[in-house]
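Example A, followed by Example B.
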Amino acid sequence: MKDLMLAIQSLFEDVLFLPLDALRTLQDSSWWAANGLNWLFMLIVFVAFVYWMKQLKTFNDNNEENRDPKAHSFLGKDADLS
């Protein structure tokens, strides 16, 4: 059992954490390059948010949403709370 745990430790420390170690050493020379992946993720989330808001506006402009208070059971007084 101890050999299995040591193998898992070796896998993570020697293989899977290598990209993170490289980012840690890169941070000393360039903060922007080390955080480039974070900026990429933030850009993807921002683009998805803008697309989502555009789609909501499209559906709102076409009056495709049922805005009746009883259209959704969780909004009305008759909601089943069981």
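Example B, a separate protein, is given below in the same form.
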Amino acid sequence: MPMTYEAYLDEVTTLMTEMFEISDEDAISEVMRAQAADFFTLHDDHPEMRTQERAVQDARTIFGQRKKPGSTTAQKRTGKPRK
């Protein structure tokens, strides 16, 4: 049975803290950033996407997309520091 949308976000957050040993605050911040970027839009529309297996995949994806310390948007696009 699919989780509610809110429970799904909580699960992704919890998984991030457990899998990557980041703080609750950092995990919440990353999930909120992903939500603001419409990462979870389809999850809201399609309950069948809100499974435990998908939560693990999404936790990995969101963690992999984290902004690295000292990086900028320009660096991510071009691989070169901003001038």
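On Example B: The first helix runs from residue 5 to 20.
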